[in-house]
User: Fold these one by one.
Assistant:
Number 1:
Amino acid sequence: MFYAVIMAGGSGTRFWPASRAAFPKQLISLAGRTSLLQSTVQRLEGVVPAENVYIVTSESHSQALRGQVPEIPEENILVEPVGRNTAPCVGLAALQIRRREPEAAMICMPADHVVNDTTAWKELLRVAHRLVRERGRVVTFGIPPTRPETAFGYIRFGGQLQSAGPVPIHRVEAFTEKPDLETARAFLQSGNCFWNSGLVAWRVDTCLDLMQRHLPAVRERLEELDLAMGSGRYPHALAQIYPRLPSVSLDYGILEHAEDILGIPADIGWSDVGSWSALPEVLPADESGNVSVGIFLGIDTADCVAYAPGRLVATIGIRDLIVVATGDALLVCHKDRAQDVKRLVDRLEKDGLGQYL
């Protein structure tokens, strides 16, 4: 049996004003009719059955999330009382899966990424499943870089160890945090450095063993929580224990220190859609390079992003701008400043404009 853990607790602040506290990025539709979360679940069909999919989310948007994925059993939607990054999030799901199958294989993935080549992705999932189940290995997926990118982490692959049909399997030599531009250019030219997709496959017992080795404080508190699972004491234990967990990512807390990790190049049309400026990666552009969701009319307008479902956006004589319109807010910014939308969200909170968050 193969299980999936979908990490859906993020706030998606860089996609304000479409993304809000109660309805964040993973629950909105950026590239089609389905939300990013719904698309993530659909990409598992035929590989991981719905009853084996676990989603970890936050209390603030758990209700909206449940409405989007009715095929996922209610008990498989795990609600964090507070966000504690990806390592505790995955650990919480691992405890639940361990109760069903102690040596289960699981794939852990973010809820808010786009994969255009679903067929290729499912084949890589099946390859990873075999490596995890039969050999107990940790498997990660590297995205072939198309540009020097300073917003992503990187994985350096070593030589090819084997292959599974046409799929090469490499040894992972190192994980690198977001580099400066010069380093990113060198990574691009090297040919063996890949973007870190945030996807990792491993067995539940392997995950928890590595957590014990590298994050013992996380593992200890999770085991305290496990004693209450399945009982009426669990909600109280979760509220008391989970906030005491350190906030740490899987990459920084475990994967960067683990040995003998396998890497698979994943040319699957992947994008993390990290800000509004990334929409051209997942949506077709018009003859002037404009990408739009909703009704768009541009005169002497080029290389812009317009997002306003159910609305008309009309522009004249602009270039390289982002325009996002919702029922109560309008965002206009240069594409080069898309990452600063998070700063604007912080400013809204500071200035007492929480009704727009």
Number 2:
Amino acid sequence: MDANIEYAMLYLELNLFSLILIWIILRKTQGLSKMEAQRNFVMSIISEMVFFVSDTWFLMVFTNVIPGDGWILIACKSVYFFATSSMCFFWFLYFEHIRETSFVKDMRKVRLSSVLMVIMGVLLIGNLFGKYLFYLGDDGTYHRGPLFILNYVFSYAYVVLAWIRIIINIIKKDTKKNRKQLVRLALLPVAPGVAGIIQFVHPRLPVACVAMSLATLILYLVWVDELISLDPLTGLNNRKQLNLSFEQIKRGKSDQEKIFLLLADANHFKSINDTYGHLQGDNALKLIAKALREGCKAVGRRGIIARYGGDEFVILLSSEGSASNEELKNAINTRLAELVKEEKLPFELTVSIGIAKLEEADSLKSLIVKADAAMYNEKRERGTGR
């Protein structure tokens, strides 16, 4: 077999494997989530599939495995590089969404961030006439242009920016994700980035598609893991993850360390649901979850925050004692009051919080029973009831 044909068949097999893999991932993601983060994930997969198809088609024509002229090569490369840019753009947005940064809450910034992708599109259209990125020689063959590097600059800028922002989050710890999750996110773009550079230097090495498909698989597995461990309404840990975290904390606890569990319960929640409907009830639960997260952040406390069930929430953390716990309670109540005012809710929304200290013999259930008793004492004292 001709060496070019043999190489083309290997390239086809690798890219076809990559294409089938991400197609399966795309099918698996459909209908699982309507979250904006996952919509960006899906868009990145679609862009990736276009990337694979255009890359493979180019190689098949270039090696004369299938018929096609030079303009087919130019069209394939144009689609290929725009798909690269759009894929990197949607990956960037996905990383921002899953870290729940303030960036993605500002649509003006999101739209502005697409400017590199738009520039890439304009450059590719202009290249059909200017021939500065890639072009056909007099003999009809494909050549790289003097500004070919811009194809990578305007695409990989998104990957580099995403990586830098994750590293900043790791250093500042300014995110809801824990350090382990952030490190995992920081490592994900490395393999596709290195593979892209290798293929830029050595175009005949078919490594980019395989690296990208494997990175996509890892992102998908991370997402599935979060679906299993997170409460879909509030984004907090669910009861299953709380149980796992409790066992880990208990095993790793030192003799001097004090572990406390705070149990928060919405006051008069049934009345909110009955009077204002379940949509308002869901909104109330999301505001409580936000108050718990931001209350912990306000006093510099890190712990496991989970929705235990219904309108009950748990914070499991290491603490110095009563004064520190009261400071956290006050921060949560203060932040919840601010959120209620900001949202202009048509009802009062407060929580009662009970606290219990972990003893050696405690299970999670027994610890919650103790916190529950403390929480009901607070309800009686404040006259808040259920």
